[in-house]
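Chapter summary example.
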Amino acid sequence: MTIRLDKLLANASVGSRKEVGLLIREGRVEVDGVVVEKPGKRVEEGARLLVDGKALEAKKYVYYLLHKPEGVISATRDQNKTVLDVIRPEDFRKGLFPVGRLDKDTTGLLLLTNNGDLAHRLLSPKRGIEKTYLARVDKELREEDVQAFKKGFLLLPENIITRPAKLIILGDTLGQVTITEGKYHQVKRMFAKVGKEVLQLKRIAMGPLQLGNLEKGSYRPLSEEEVAKLQQL
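The structure predicted for these 233 residues follows.
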């Protein structure tokens, strides 16, 4: 498994893509004892890296936070455009997959990684990882809706009861919903239970990860701090 040298160094917080490109061109980076001056050089997993004489190990795992746009499928392969197609060819793409899924018309935070063990832990129902959404619905939200979300809903045909969820009314038809599980179309089905149709749905947080002001269709590598927080979960 390989990754571009400049991308690897940027992921390791050595500097921005532009800054690490300059470091490489100045001959300040060694790969397995050889000075490399081309930012696009592909580096093997586990290669020994030196930056200004200091060791930096090639990362085995990569993590991207994507602001998923509408019309993109949360899959690694499909006849339609997938979330992996958003990743630029020059960046690390091999082995990546989305952690969980968002519906085709749902936007917002989606984690992409090649770390299957971590993804499994994040998706495990036992972990109860919080996922927060902004939902625009077709009718006015009321306090009785808030209480209904707290109690949970019976979903058919699975015949399962959802865990208590938190609904905060932000406007007449705008709500913020936090759930700790990920049933099929869960948020939309929960609103349907209180007689409302979801017109727009956007995930803004997952565990310690926040979408922030990342533009739709853009992505960024996770910081070391964010990766550490995920691993602590």
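To summarize the output: The radius of gyration is 21 Å.
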